[in-house]
Design goal:
The protein has 146 residues and is of the alpha/beta class. The chain has one domain. The strands form three sheets. Strands 2-1-5-8 form a four-stranded parallel beta sheet, sandwiched between helices. It has a two-stranded antiparallel ribbon with strand order 3-4. It has a two-stranded antiparallel sheet with strand order 6-7. The protein starts with a strand and ends in a 12-residue tail after the last strand. 38% of the residues are buried.
C-alpha cells in the first residue's frame, strides 16, 4: 500500500523548530510494510523552516507572534490532498497535535501547550474528502460522537 506521511515522522527537519524528530518503531514498521511518501503541509503551503509555532484558534491558525497563517496552512492542506490523489495513495499518516496534521487532538490556541480534542486543518480536509487518515501509530482518529 502507498501512504503519504508527515515528513517529520520520517526524521526530515521540517518541524516548526527545525529539529529532527526520531523515527518511532511504529513508523519503522509501517515503512517496512508500505511505500511512504513524505509530505509537510506547512512547507507545501509556503512556510519556512524554522518558523514560529502556530496553533489553531477555531477556523484560524495563528502563530506565536500573532500573525494569521491560515492561508498557508490551507494551501498546504490542499496540496497534500492533490498529492494523495496524484499518487493514488491508500491514505495519509499524520503527526498528532499539529495545527495542520493533528488527528487525536491539537493545542487549544493559547500557546500554553494545553491539549484539546480536535483536528488539524489538513486532517480535517482529508477526512472531509473521504481520504483514510491515520495517526503516527497507524490508527484512525477517534470518531466524533453525534
Amino acid at each position: 500500500m502507498v501512504y503519504l506521511i508527515s515528513a517529520c515522522l520520517l526524521g526530515l527537519p521540517c518541524r516548526y523548530d527545525g529539529r529532527v524528530r526520531e523515527v518511532s518503531p511504529a513508523v519503522e514498521r509501517l515503512a517496512k510494510e508500505h511505500t511512504l511518501i513524505p509530505v509537510c503541509p506547512e512547507v507545501l503551503g509556503g512556510l519556512p523552516t524554522p518558523r514560529p509555532p502556530a496553533e489553531r484558534q477555531g477556523e484560524r491558525i495563528v502563530n506565536a507572534e500573532g500573525v494569521d497563517v491560515t492561508a498557508a496552512y490551507r494551501r498546504g492542506a490542499e496540496e497534500v490532498l492533490r498529492l494523495c490523489r496524484h499518487h493514488g495513495a491508500d491514505g495519509v499518516i499524520l503527526k498528532d497535535m499539529s495545527p495542520s496534521c493533528g488527528t487525536n487532538g491539537i493545542y487549544d490556541g493559547s500557546f500554553t501547550r494545553t491539549r484539546v480534542p480536535g483536528l488539524g486543518v489538513t486532517a480535517e480536509l482529508l477526512l472531509s474528502a473521504g481520504v483514510t487518515v491515520l495517526d503516527e501509530g497507524g490508527a484512525p482518529p477517534p470518531r466524533k460522537e453525534k
